[in-house]
Amino acid sequence: MSLKMSGHFTYKRLLRFVISPILMIICTAVYGVVDGFFISNYVGKVPFAAVNLVMPVDLVPVAIGFMIGEGGNALISKKLGENKRGIANQYFSLLIYTTAVIGVVLSLAGYAFTPVIADILGANDQLKPYCVEYGRILFAAQFFYVLQNIFQSFFIAAGKPDLSLKVSLLSGGINVLLDVLFIVVLQWGVAGAAWATALGQVAGGMAPLAYFARKNSSLLQITRTRLNLPVLFKTFTNGSSDMVSVLSASVITALYNYQLLSIAGEDGVAAYGAIMYITFIFMSIYLGYASGSAPLISFQYGAKNHEELHNLVRKSIVLMLGLGGIITVVAELAAEPLLGAFVGYDQELFSLTVHGYCMYVLAFLLMGLNIWGAALFTALNNGLVSAAISFLRTFGFEMAAVLLLPIWLGIDGIWISIFVAELCTCFITVYFMVSKREVYHY
Fold this sequence. Notes:
Family: Belongs to the multi antimicrobial extrusion (MATE) (TC 2.A.66.1) family. MepA subfamily.
Protein name: Multidrug export protein MepA
Keywords: Antibiotic resistance, Cell membrane, Membrane, Transmembrane, Transmembrane helix, Transport
Strand content: under 5%
GO molecular function, one term: antiporter activity
Membrane topology: Multi-pass membrane protein
């Protein structure tokens, strides 16, 4: 199925266009949940805590993939909107080659320095062996994982959002099946979980590479190209907000783990891990919508169709605010059954997790608007404003809240930090959206 980016978008057509990116990211989140379920229930809460401790590092290839994918998407979609398909393919190919080189460097460096990384993340003697065992296997697959992340963005610009979902189903399906085989049947423990994830990532990176490397029915194909530093610079700066969002999530996760380890010990880290697995499923709706709608905005901006650009922005704001209320209510009501699947075997840990989760998910009320607001300015090729929103949201407000609020509120200060950060960011997002309205004619 190929969906055109031109023409008028009703709510129905807009949701039809973004549904594949949303489902793709939800599938990715669900597969992560399955990983966590098997590790927690079949390996134990200490290995589960160890995996969650090292998980921030696994976000690095995601950050790079988002930076190049979303930043490049804006450039490529704009060129497609200008009817310059040949140039769009040259940009696309350059970014694929660049990503491949970065992936090799990540794999080699990560594998070599895994023990050092575990120490930096605060792993104690009990957690470190599991961190190193899990981390080294994952790092070996980083080349494929960073490719998987960038291709998921480019499938949308190529007019094939459904293929991003199919690749996700392939990668995640392999992951889940191998989880059962390696963890439950063969009892390989943490190593089994890591191998299942790594092999799923190999499939997720190689399948789209094979598709775009040959003639296909999409708008994009890997071709011969040349080094173009201005294009790389524009891609990196334009996608910097996406990289900041993911990298900051990595840093913030490490900070949460550090604070919780000092206040509640390994149970605190395990509780946060369970919360993150579940909340990422809900957050995926916002991320998928932002990723799916951004090429539409870039296309209309490149085509100078101000009326349709205004239509897309208005509808997106309504959807983000409406979904914020719905997702928050659903997340609160589903707390106990969802978290029970992870930590129901330990009543004290379960109570701690549910308590923290119910405060944490209040952030969903405003999170969608903030995520989409940053994506809007990336799509409009204004990486500076987009990066400012993302930087303040995480490195600014959330980091400050995680460090300061526990001084007065104890562990509750940690759980409520993300809501405080989203509330503060909302004012910044609205300010930029209003002040830039006349500049971009939306």
